[in-house]
Amino acid sequence: MSGREQAMAEEYVAGYAGLLTDACATGRRLTRDELDSRRALGERAAESGLGLRALVGAHLAETRAHWPTAATSPTSVLAAVEQAIDAFAEGYERAQRLAVRQEEAARREFIDDLLYGRSDLGRLVERAERFGLRLSHEHAVAVAEGARAYEEGDPAPRSVERAMITRFGDRSILLTTKDGRLVCVAPGDQDEVLAFFAKHAYAATDGGHVAIGRAQQGPGGVVQSYEEALSTLELAERLELDEPVLRAADLLVYPVLTRDRQAMADLVRTTLGPLQRARGGAEPLIDTLSAYFDSGCVAAEAARRLALSVRAMTYRLERIHKLTGADPSDPIHRYTLQTAVIGARLLDWPNRQL
Prior knowledge:
Arc Repressor Mutant, subunit A
């Protein structure tokens, strides 16, 4: 312990020797007021930043230096020492728990403001530095979603956090949970951080989806990247995308397609509406088109994906051609059909009326 720390520790053992001598003279237990005063000193010591180990050592050193010679027995001295140190440690730990709760509350408030953009930007930048973020730079956000909701302290986020700290240490990374999802905010020029997070989050969520938003500049950029990641997760669900890790930058065409919702609805109704006349409705034939396009327009591969014979697959494609007037094998018709199928997935048609 340094000289300065020793001097500070002595402040928190003041009065301890007299208390010990008085209590041990008769072998009595410490009074409630005496215990309360030791707890209060413990709280103050915690707030000062001194370590508990050093403070306990200072109490023991004080005990050796001022061993009560008038004590009824060594046992009575040790009993008084135990009571005094225990009360002091209780106050110290109580102050630490309060500080941790306050820190957690401040961190949660900051995260809410950061991801929802609800705080004054200048103030947000100041608070961000406390948590290791420099919001004047670019940041990107990755979001992982599993079969169940996750909270801070759950095994899944803890395992991801351990892996991230082991791999990258303190590299201006913010890990948290929000609305049941795992969230990672990282500098925009450190793509390896988000890729590593995606890998471990995918494993921790037992094969959930991970979406990565584009890197964006400034305090508001975190909100934009976070919202992009959430939108990407929603797209993955609607389009039934199987890829475990999706990047918003790779899916920019989909927001463009749905920007004019009415135009897309018209395209879906006009192009795919006739499929509703088929036996079994439009859904099986839309699934057929999705598999056909996803397999590179190879009928045999599409049939395998749908567990159909090639003959059955060919029949379905011919039926689609007959009902819609559009040939899936024709490049011009193919583009219209594929765009309409994407629109149907995004608009949840035919389950939802357009």
